[in-house]
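tool=predict chain=A
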Amino acid sequence: MPLPPADRLPRLIGLLNDRTIRLAVTGLSGSGKTVFIASLVHNLLSAVGQPARLPFLRAAAERRILATRLGSPKSKTIAQFPVWRTIAALAAEPARWPASTTDLRRADLLLRFAPTGFLSRAARGTAELSLEILDYPGEWLLDLPLLGQSYRDWSRATLERAWRGARAPLARDWLDFLGRHPADSVGDPEVARRAHSLYRVFLEACQTHEQLTLLQPGRFLNPGQIADPSLLWFCPMPFAVGAHAREGSMAALMEGRFEAYKQVVVQPFFMQLARGVDRQIVLVDVLRALNAGQEAFADQRLAFETILAAFRFGRRSFLRVLFGARIDRVLFAATKADHVPALQRDHLEALMANLVTVPTLRAAAAHARVAATALASIRCTEDGTDVIDGRKVDVVIGLPEGGERRIRFFPGIVPVTPPPEGFWGERFTEFPVFQPPRIERAGGDGVPHINLDRVLDFLLGDALA
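tool=predict ok
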């Protein structure tokens, strides 16, 4: 039976006010994705009682967020983000940092709010935002560019990097093994498995000792749940000029596994990640790259430019909702902003913007809104001053993890553009790991942060209007 005219307007308004935002939290290993999601969820759950914690999220500052709650699981194939276990780690005595992401996970948050639209105000209605947050190991991002590469091209690019710079001494055992088992030798599965193992050790050493970033395939470092581990038993191989993978050869065996890995592991993940994602935040530990040196810094920049080339950007529209939404808002955030004093945070933000110039221009050309910022999802320090060589300098004050006394830490001067050659004469600064502040498990006061409210307003502000 059709609705009476008097009932149609509230029904229509209700349909218009049911909004869903799917947010992909992107970042390489150690960039702070788990901590970001925990702080986001905890602070939004606390936004009704403590809106002052999010002063630059307009809906919170205007007290239009009426209720927030965690949503029930909507997917049987994606594990739920462990919200309460993560919060429990931060509420422990002493507080501890939560474990890193090891597989694809999802958090669902429902926000009921008072909209500002004319029709909604006229009907005295409320609206609901369903926020779906996707979290996954940062290493997996490195596999997305493989979808557009052949085994031969990927091998060539990977070997060129392995033969020079900090990678060269770390690759010696693996490359020596390949020298004894060349591409045209018989394709022995046990030899292939041994070559894979040596290559994986090489990647781990690059990540651990040199803090390099562009390390592929990403699942060699963080496999997650893979039913058939033999899909991973391959590695790059050198090809002679003009040569092809001969049937039955080692190169043919490796190439077959490379293609199977893309088809069975990478492609499904990419489709799951890309389907319906509306907003994206890209977390980058710029300070760690500065500390690691020139090669690590350049490697991180190249990795992000390579990864982000795989994402689709563009203005959200009704047709895109029906036929494959594109990401219409992208935020690049330099993490650990609490490791530098207030005056240096503007430098950190400017450096972040410079580092992502290429993907920013590409996203803007597709009519996506793009911004860069400096962020501390959980603030562990406070600002202060100290005297060094007779000069007063700005520092941060915090408790090192496992320490008993707070320290005054001077991080040096953060450059606003990618540093020139002369900058790298010495390592930048060894950053301590600061103890996180202990939070209340039940919420209430939220989590201290730097710029999380600005981040949320950029990513969600229009949906909460």
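Residues 14-141+274-382+436-460 form a domain with the Rossmann fold fold (CATH 3.40.50.300). Residues 226 and 265 are 8 Å apart (CA to CA).
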